[in-house]
Design goal:
five-stranded antiparallel sheet, alpha+beta, about 35% strand
C-alpha cells in the first residue's frame, strides 16, 4: 500500500511542476509580444532613413521612393503577423506629402485626409495632425519625414510617433 501512495505522490508532483512551467512560459511569451511591435517600429525608423538617403544620394524622387518603401514595409509587418498602419509627412523643402493609412480619416492642418489618400501641401512647419482624438504637432525638417504608426497584434494596440 505504501508503494502505491509514493507513486501517486510522484505523479502529483510531476503534474504540478508541469503546470507551473507551462504557466510561466505562457506569461513570458505574452510579455514578449509588445516588444515585437517596438522592434518593428525601430526597424521602420532605420529603414525609412536608409530609403531617403538612397533616394537623395541617387538623385531620385524622394516621394515615390518613400511611397514604395512604406508599401513594402507594411507588407513585411503583415507577414510577421502585425498590422502596421502608417501616416507619414515627408518634406523636400518646397512640398510636404502626407499619406494616411492609419485605418481612419484624419485631419492635417485643417484639411481632411481620408484613409489611403495622399495630399500635397506647401512646406510649413509645424504640421498639425489630428488622429485618434489627439493633436500631433510635427516639425518638418527638409528631406526628412515624420510618422504616426498604429501597430496591432491581437488585442494589443500601440501608437508610435516619430
Amino acid at each position: 500500500m505504501k508503494k502505491e501512495k509514493r507513486g501517486q505522490l510522484y505523479i502529483l508532483t510531476a503534474v504540478l511542476l508541469c503546470a507551473a512551467v507551462f504557466g510561466i512560459v505562457a506569461i513570458m511569451t505574452h510579455a514578449q509580444k509588445p516588444s515585437d511591435t517596438k522592434e518593428l517600429f525601430e526597424n521602420y525608423k532605420y529603414e525609412a532613413a536608409q530609403s531617403l538617403n538612397y533616394a537623395l544620394y541617387n538623385s531620385q524622387d524622394i516621394f515615390s521612393t518613400f511611397d514604395d518603401f512604406n508599401t513594402e514595409f507594411e507588407s513585411y509587418a503583415q507577414a510577421k503577423g502585425v498590422s502596421f498602419n502608417v501616416f507619414y509627412a515627408l518634406s523636400d523643402g518646397i512640398t510636404i506629402r502626407a499619406y494616411n493609412n492609419l485605418g481612419e480619416d484624419i485631419t492635417i492642418n485643417s484639411y481632411s485626409l481620408p484613409q489611403s489618400q495622399t495630399i500635397n501641401l506647401s512646406h510649413t512647419s509645424p504640421v498639425i495632425v489630428n488622429a485618434f482624438g489627439y493633436d500631433y504637432n510635427l516639425t518638418m525638417p527638409v528631406n526628412d519625414y515624420r510618422a504616426i504608426i498604429k501597430s496591432e497584434r491581437g488585442e494589443d494596440i500601440t501608437i508610435f510617433v516619430k
